[in-house]
Amino acid sequence: MTRTAQKAEEFEELRPLLFSIAYRILGSVTEAEDAVQETWLRYEASTTSPVSAKAFLSAVVTRISINVLRSARVRREAYVGPWFPEPLLADPYEDPERSAELADSVSMAALLLLERLSPLERAVFVLREVFDFGFPEIASAVGRSEAACRQLVVRARRHMTEDRPRFEAGRREREELATRFFDAFREGDVDGVRDLLAADVRLVADSGGKAPQWVEGFFGAHDVSRVLAALLPPFARIGGVVEPHQVNGQPGAIFRDRDGKVVNTWTLDILDGQIQTIRTVSNPDKLGHVGPVADAWAVLRETQRARFAPD
Fold first, then answer.
1. What is the pTM of this model?
2. From residue 120, how far is each of 33, 94, 155, 172 by CA, in Å?
3. Protein fold of 3-161
4. Which domain of life is it from (predicted)?
5. Secondary structure (DSSP) of 70-122
6. What's 164's DSSP letter?
7. Residue 85 · residue 111 · CB < 8 Å
8. Helix/strand/coil for 201
9. pLDDT digits over 187-221, tens only?
């Protein structure tokens, strides 16, 4: 086997880990994939043979992601409306012993908390707290001393701890509640929906100004349940489908038009047996990796006509 072929084999074996690191640092599927591709190009061009391909490639993708995040933050400051991470349908990296932690660390709630950290804090926190890298590896990856990395982790942990999402309920319990929620939602059952919502539930949306706001932002179980119960029937009448699906490691759904194209995605934050937050992403720039994207404006117009049409 040539050295190039060996590198390619090593890289493909580590690709899921590299993507998962990059996504948690960047909150963007597209940018994470680009960072992984750039990592491969640098590895392919490298004339050195690292002692550990995992340590070398993890360091490279981390440095690239830090640089990308620094420039991305400028764009996010000018973003129209709330900014949410790009929805992730499946994390390619698996570790049976840490499956729960990995799923929670990629949730929308956790990624939004990571947005509060500096790029360096975020990278160090992800490597240490999510992927359990040792401090020597982290120090090499970010170009800081081990002592400095320990301080960064402590500072990042302090920022994260106070509002860190707590998903105490087991995955099966969350899935069962989500199933009941979407069943009630499909039936337009206001009471059934409201019973599953926390009193201070939030329904918030990310359109980036590039898609209609199906929901502007509603708060409280009464208003959210009424909005949800009124939303689906006309959408269903025009052939729209709500497809329950894990999104960012949590219960959620993909909304599709009659042709199967993606209108938006939803994620549910579930805590203490109730839905605390519903986040929707309809910005078409964030949905292309999920599937062909629908013309959300056309879907909205057709839904509105169906909503007000006589039975």
1. 0.92
2. 20, 25, 11, 35
3. Butyryl-CoA Dehydrogenase, subunit A; domain 3 (1.20.140)
4. Bacteria
5. HHHHHHHHT-SS---PPP-S--S---GGGHHHHHHHTSHHHHHHHTTS-HHHH
6. -
7. yes
8. strand
9. 888 899 999 999 999 999 999 989 987 556 789 99
